[in-house]
UniProtKB/TrEMBL annotation:
InterPro entries: ABC_Transporter_SBP, ABC_transptr_haem-bd_IsdE, ABC_transptr_periplasmic_BD. Transmembrane segments: none annotated. Keywords: Cell membrane, Heme, Iron, Lipoprotein, Membrane, Metal-binding, Palmitate, Signal, Transport. Its cofactor is heme b. NCBIfam families: IsdE. The keyword Glycosyltransferase does not apply. The gene is isdE. PROSITE patterns: FE_B12_PBP. It comes from Peptostreptococcus canis. Belongs to the bacterial solute-binding protein 8 family. Pfam families: Peripla_BP_2. The keyword Signal applies. This is High-affinity heme uptake system protein IsdE.
């Protein structure tokens, strides 16, 4: 009885964490052959060795760490698929998985990042799929998801080890950064032909704050904002960080052309002081990943130089 109650509690938490900041819950399960789990929580303990589809590489990485077998994975042209899933059926791109392929796999669960919930939830619901959206917008959210997945997918030992490693790392990391001066940072997320501002709610923005800096653009809900350069200049950041959502070579060229040809950038102190840095998009992308220690180390070099 205790195990059933624990699983029910964990599932309820997973439902809540799919909304950023634990601000609310949504029904992850449509009515149909697979009943709404909110009304039939007793189903959860019966799902032994569930058939799981992961639609993004960040989600695949979590499943690999939890030693979960997958029946469907994304078709990624950028990130390398773990060997464990090399021969697993491809279900399409993360932003637009092929629902017919997914349905043909008869999955018990399909998991995606919460950043895609508005696009994917209606499709999953219409297809009568049991789905969950993981909060990968920040590191704490990722580990909250891992904790609940560990219980739901019967991988508690693996999840507990990952969480302990994270807690040990963060305890040491925060201790090293006590009392350090906070730089004011502008974070730009580039897409081919354009760019947006990353707030504290985005993954890259949350890393900046975790590293002890101040993001000059904050929000209670929005991960990214469309801001004109005149407003950015008023913020006058000490440092400008640039990263890419996709096609990093094209984005790098776009940023270089923008900063060279748009005269307003020459008025930023960060530009005058050569404090503009391009980040590795693999470590500073859209979703939280397990390479966050490398990302934080890169930020340490930028924010503190030799002062480690």
């Amino acid at each position: 009885m205790y195990n059933i109650v624990k699983k029910i509690m964990a599932f309820s938490l997973l439902i809540c964490i799919i909304i950023i900041g634990n601000s609310g819950c949504v029904n992850q399960h449509p009515e149909g052959d697979k009943k709404t789990v909110i009304n039939d929580l007793r189903q959860i303990p019966t799902l032994k060795n569930p058939r799981v589809v992961a639609t993004s590489m960040a989600t695949v990485e979590i499943m690999e760490k939890l030693n979960v077998d997958l029946v469907g994975v994304p078709d990624s042209k950028i990130s390398k698929m773990p060997g464990k899933y090399k021969n697993v059926t491809k279900v399409g791109m993360a932003m637009a998985p092929d629902i017919e392929i997914v349905k043909g796999l008869n999955p018990d669960w399909i998991f995606s990042p919460v950043s895609l919930i508005s696009d994917l939830q209606p499709k999953y619901s219409n297809a009568n799929l049991r789905y969950g959206f993981l909060n990968l917008n920040n590191i704490p959210g990722m580990y909250k998801s891992i904790k609940d997945l560990g219980i739901i997918l019967d991988r508690e030992a693996e999840a507990d080890k990952l969480i302990k490693d994270y807690e040990d790392f963060m305890k040491d990391y925060k201790e090293k950064h006590k009392g350090k001066k906070k730089s004011r940072v502008l974070v730009l997320m580039g897409l081919p032909g354009s760019y947006i501002v990353a707030t504290n709610q985005s993954y890259v923005g949350s890393l900046v704050e975790l590293a002890g800096a101040e993001n000059v653009y904050t929000s209670n809900s929005d991960q990214f904002l469309n801001i004109n350069t005149e407003d950015m200049l008023k913020k006058n950041p000490d440092i400008i960080l640039r990263t890419a959502h996709a096609l990093p070579d094209d984005v790098q060229k776009m940023f270089n052309d923008e900063f060279k040809n748009n005269d307003i950038w020459s008025h930023f102190d960060a530009v005058k002081n050569n404090k503009v840095y391009d980040l590795d998009y693999k470590a500073f992308g859209m979703s939280a990943k397990f390479n966050y220690p490398k990302a934080l180390k890169d930020l340490d070099s930028i924010l503190y130089g030799g002062d480690k």
